[in-house]
Amino acid sequence: QVQLQESGPGLVKPSATLSLTCTVSGASIRTYYWSWIRQPPGKGLEWIGDISYSESTSYNPSLKSRVTISGDTSKNHFSLQLNSVTAADTAIYYCARLTAAAGSNKYMDVWGRGTTVTVSS
Amino acid sequence: SYEVTQPPSLSVSPGQTASITCSGDKLGDKYASWYQQKPGQSPVLVIYQDTKRPSGIPERFSGSNSGNTATLTISETQAMDEADYYCQTWDSRTVVFGGGTKVTVL
After folding, report:
1. Confidence of residue B85 (pLDDT cuts 50, 70, 90)
2. I need a labelling partner for B12 at 20 to 30 A (CA). Which of A19, A89, B55, B61 fits?
3. What is the pLDDT of residues B40-59, one digit of tens each?
4. Could you write out the DSSP letters of every residue in A27-81?
5. Is the CB of B35 less than 8 angstroms away from the CB of A60?
């Protein structure tokens, strides 16, 4: 059974860097793709980006200039860094496994529980 | 960038059929997935590859996708189906979510 667990600070100061880690159990990050998604309070889901088993990355164009997603195969986890945060980055941050079949057949079939990050001084 | 649009809300009576739409340019040429999210919980995949149900998802959930519209249909809707539903597709190396539809069962 694949499980994902997000971890990281719950409070980040404005202009600082948000750093989160997603630890994967029951599967190797050397397989599949792995995504970060966020959800601001009372709003919908926003895809942040993903990293593949070959460590190639894709990012939401609206966040691309501030986002880095990386993987650590020795610890079987992947991480999110979001620079220069503002209050607009306050959200629940989820990690998820992205099953990437051919073409546009890509979907997130396993999700973490999410972690709440508040940007405030 | 590619966008998909959902109605913000939908009301359905218990036992009736709920149809949630997701519209996008030539969406039928892409694959659509659907997620259910209940308050305080993580999203759950209920439909992928337009019509397929993951293991454990009740048969009353079904999907279709043609033209510019993908549809999630909940047959014989139950109180436990009250939730937010999000459609999702993929275009030009980016994952695209719809804005979500709040389904109320009353």
Report:
1. very high
2. B55
3. 999 999 999 999 999 999 99
4. S-TTSSEEEEEEE-TTS--EEEEEE-TT--EEE-TTTGGGEEEEEETTTTEEEEE
5. no
